[in-house]
C-alpha cells in the first residue's frame, strides 16, 4: 500500500470522526492536513518528512481555525444591570442565591464578614464563573 493511499485514508477517517465526535475542528483540520500531505507524498519520498509536514500543517491549521473560525465572545451584560435581589440569605463567607436578570444565580458577598438577609437588594460587583459576587445595597450607601 502506498503512503499516498495511507494519508488519504487517514485524512478521510479524521474528517469523518469530526461528524461523530465534535472536537472543535481539531480532527477535521488534522484530516485536511493529511489530505495535503497525501499530495505532498507524491513529491516527498521520506516518511519522516511526510509525518513532520503533517504535524506542522495540523498545528498551523488548528491555530488558524481557532483564530478565524471561533465565535467572538460577547461583551457581558454585567455592566448594564447591576442590581439583584437575594432569594436566600448569604452567610459570611458562604454562598446563597440571588435573582439577577430574571434568573436564580449562586452568589457570595464580596465582604467575607458581611451577612446578607433574604429579600434584600444587592449590587452585583463581578462574576466568577457561575457565582455572582455581590455587595448589600445598604453597605454601599452608608
Provide the descriptors you would attach to this structure in a database record:
single chain; 142 residues; alpha+beta; OB fold (Dihydrolipoamide Acetyltransferase, E2P); 2 domains; five-stranded mixed barrel; 4 helices
Task: Provide a descriptive summary of the structure in words.
- This protein is α+β, with helices and mostly antiparallel strands and about 140 residues long.
- The chain has two domains: about 5-70, no CATH class; about 75-140, OB fold (Dihydrolipoamide Acetyltransferase, E2P).
- Helices cover about 40% and strands about 20% of the residues.
- The protein has helices spanning about 5-20, 25-40, 45-70, 135-140, and strands at about 85, 95-100, 105-110, 120-130, 130-135.
- The chain has a five-stranded mixed beta barrel.
- Strand 4 and strand 5 (about 130-135) form a beta hairpin.
- It is rod-shaped, with a radius of gyration of 26 Å.
- The termini are far apart.
- The mean pLDDT is about 85.
